[in-house]
Design brief:
Elements (H helix, E strand, L loop, with lengths): L5 E6 L3 H12 L4 E5 L15 E3 L10 H18 L4 E2 L3 E5 L13 H12 L4 E4 H7 L11 E5 L3 E3 L1 H14 L3 E4 L3 E7 L2 E6 L3 E9 L5 H5 L3 H4 L1 E12 L11 E5 L7 E3 L8 E5 L18 H15 L3 E15 L7 E3 L6 E4 L7 H17 L17
Parallel strand pairs: 1-2, 1-12, 2-9, 5-14, 12-19
Antiparallel strand pairs: 3-8, 4-8, 5-7, 6-7, 10-11, 11-12, 13-16, 13-17, 14-15, 15-16, 18-19
Helix pairs in contact: 1-5, 1-9, 2-5, 2-9
GO molecular function: flavin adenine dinucleotide binding; sarcosine oxidase activity
Pfam families: DAO
Enzyme class: oxidoreductase
């Protein structure tokens, strides 16, 4: 049998792929990464200037150790590249509704966040509506029944910088990168994995596929039935009253009475004069080829009318810029991190259902541990494919 060119090939170099490639190179493996674009880029899910990071992860207890470790890795990376990656401005999770609900029918998100903060000993404060308004006057419009969880250890990370830092370090450690090459097929036989692009065939002992919204077409069954691509829109609105935002304003998540009333956003970044806010939608699915990457004036006006003015003061309806990204979503909105059931030696890391970036650095480390040592320090079993078995 012909010797494989690489120990591991990583397909897709967004949040998960960049972290995995770096961690494998750090452990001395002969690794390659391939991406259809030149990351960091704005064609997938890992862009948009800022991404929330928090330790009390209301989506579930299995995520908390990953979020905590990822924040430690961001700091380690900052020291190596001498560039700020993680802004610890705090995170405020709020339920602003008289009838709170969680996303997709889950229990109240803020209450779950508070419970997990207590369970894991994460520093936090529980705030009512009056306390929220007093400390953060930009949230004056919130509902009188609002409940908040303020986590001072949270904040936001810079996704493009984080990806670039890890890919740069991976190169310095000897990793080979193939960019601008679209993977057309992944096959496994005789103990090797073959990754074929337009003009290249890469052979490796193992592969990690982090292909985001292109995963289902690359991986086939069962992923073609499990994964949905949902278009998401990001908005940056001009500030009317910059002074209304305290110097240390937090990133925030607001949950209303329904999925349509949920939104999240970030403090104004100094010098930009605008504030980023976004929501999430899971009712309409798309494909990589027909994803609409333009944000219309009507969409911007509706976002401002329905969510911005009802939750945040000091922001105008003037749109400074906008962006589109794609969430690749599983039926239960939790990750899939597991071996491919039909392709030997292929690990699948998708889909991250819109809340993956905050965990990505730690997932990359855990995958590298699994591939090198046979096990990871953080338990990833909650993300097994087995939960979707008939």
């Amino acid at each position: 049998m012909q010797t494989a060119e690489f120990d591991v090939v990583v397909v897709g170099l967004g949040a998960m792929g960049a972290a995995t490639l770096y961690q494998l190179a750090k452990r001395g493996l002969n690794v390659a990464g391939i991406d259809r674009f030149a990351p960091p880029h704005d064609q997938g899910s890992s862009h948009g200037d800022t991404r929330i990071t928090r330790q009390a992860v209301g989506e579930g207890a299995a995520y908390v150790p990953l979020a905590i470790r990822a924040q430690q890795i961001w700091r380690e990376l900052e020291a190596q590249v001498d560039e700020p990656l993680f802004e610890q401005c705090g995170v405020l999770v709020m339920t602003s509704s008289a009838a709170p609900t969680g996303q997709d029918g889950t229990p109240d998100f803020t209450a779950n966040t508070l419970a997990l903060a207590r369970q894991f000993g994460i520093e936090h404060e529980a705030l009512d509506a009056a306390q929220i308004r007093q400390r953060f006057p930009q949230f004056a419009p919130i509902h009188d029944s609002a409940l908040g969880c303020f986590e001072p250890g949270g904040g936001y990370v810079r996704p493009e910088r984080c990806i670039d830092a890890q890919l740069t370090l991976a190169r310095q450690l000897g990793a080979t990168l193939f960019t601008g090459e679209t993977v057309q097929a992944i096959a496994s036989d005789q103990g090797q994995v073959r990754v074929t692009s337009q003009g290249r065939c890469i052979t490796a002992a193992k592969a990690v596929v982090c292909a985001g919204m292109w995963s289902s077409q690359l991986l086939g069954a069962p992923f073609d039935e499990l994964l949905r691509v949902c278009r998401q829109t990001l908005y940056w609105y001009r500030l009317a009253e910059p002074a209304i935002f305290p110097e240390h304003s937090p990133s925030f998540i607001v949950h209303g009475a329904s999925d349509e009333q949920h939104c999240y956003g970030f403090p104004p970044i100094p010098g930009e004069g605008s504030m980023k806010i976004a929501t999430e939608q899971y009712s309409q699915a798309s494909t990589p080829d027909d994803l609409d990457r333009q944000v219309s004036a009507a969409q911007s006006a509706a976002m401002y009318h329905d969510l911005v003015r009802t939750h945040i003061a000091g922001v105008t309806p003037e749109l400074v810029k906008s962006a589109v990204c794609a969430y690749t979503v599983t039926p239960d909105a939790h990750f899939i991190i597991d071996q491919h059931p039909r392709l030997a030696n292929v690990t699948v890391v998708s889909a991250c259902s819109g809340h993956g970036f905050k965990h990505s650095a730690a997932i990359g480390e855990a995958l590298a541990q699994q591939l090198v040592d046979g096990r990871s320090e953080i338990d990833l079993s909650a993300f097994s494919l087995a939960r979707f078995a008939p």
